[in-house]
Amino acid sequence: MSHQATVKPKLRRTPHEEVGPMYPVVKPVDRGYDLTLNPKNGERAQGQIVYLSGRVIDTNGEPIAGAKVELWQTNMHGRYDHPADPNPAPLDENFEGFGSAVTDAEGRYAFKTVKPAAYPASAPGWWRPPHIHFDVESDYSRLCTQMYFPGEKLNDEDFLIARHRKIGDGELIVAKPAPLPAGAEPDAVALTFDLILNARLR
């Protein structure tokens, strides 16, 4: 009988996307976990609350502690708080759409945000589905990607998602439902999204 250790299969790296033109020109003051609260006036952002959490791990399945996680997104109307956004949809003065966190010892991160909306993209008739941009950096690896919401009709029509689905990576960029935390708002949703980076070279 063989007593050789079972080799764990490697995980697939989360698909890469370009940083894109809407990365903040000037990063807002860090709001910590809760992006929905305007610290200047105590007012809440408009839109459906999203509790978003997950882990940053490597392709060996090992947690990456101390990774910097940045996210940015549109508001509930589909507009980025960015001077280059041509979308005429309204801004929300209580939502800047940017947050950052550092993963804990288990690679975990968490944010409270609002659900972004779809918006018209560069090609005629192309609407980007609701999504959140991520830029994740450890001391040896970096990943830029986009997270999509489960069950969105526009997911099936999006050019970027189609590209990932073509090579079998489509499920890696769609978040999964998660249990709501105690005391969550009545219409809130909770999602989990793991970010998988390349493993450290030995």
Protein architecture, described:
The protein has a domain at about 50-120 and about 130-150 and about 170-195: Sandwich (Protocatechuate 3,4-Dioxygenase, subunit A). Helix content is about 5%, strand content about 25%. The longest helix is centred in the last third of the chain and has 8 residues, at about 160-165. It has one helix spanning about 160-165; strands at about 50-60, 70, 100, 110-115, 120, 125-130, 130-135, 140-150, 175, 190, 195. It is mostly beta strands and about 200 residues long. A hairpin with a 6-residue loop joins strand 5 and strand 6. It contains one helix and eleven strands. Strands 1, 4, 9, 10 and 11 form a five-stranded mixed beta sheet that branches. Strands 3-2-7-8 form a four-stranded antiparallel beta sheet, with no helix packed on it.
Task: From the structure above, extract its key features.
Protocatechuate 3,4-Dioxygenase, subunit A; mainly beta; 5-stranded mixed β-sheet; 202 residues; globular
CATH C-level of one domain = Mainly Beta
What oligomeric assembly is this protein in?
single chain
User: How would you state the average pLDDT, rounded?
Assistant: 93
Q: Figure out the total of helices.
A: 1
Biggest sheet descriptor:
5 strands, mixed
CATH superfamily label of one domain: Aromatic compound dioxygenase
Strand content: 25-35%
Structural class: mainly beta
Helix percentage? under 10%
Number of strands: 11
- Based on the coordinates given, report the CATH architecture of one domain: Sandwich
Separation of termini? 31 Å
Radius of gyration: 18 Å
Q: In the CATH scheme, what's the topology name of one domain?
A: Protocatechuate 3,4-Dioxygenase, subunit A
Order of helices and strands: EEEEEEEEHEEE
The best one-word shape is globular
Which residues sit in consecutive blocks of at least 5 with pLDDT less than 50?
none
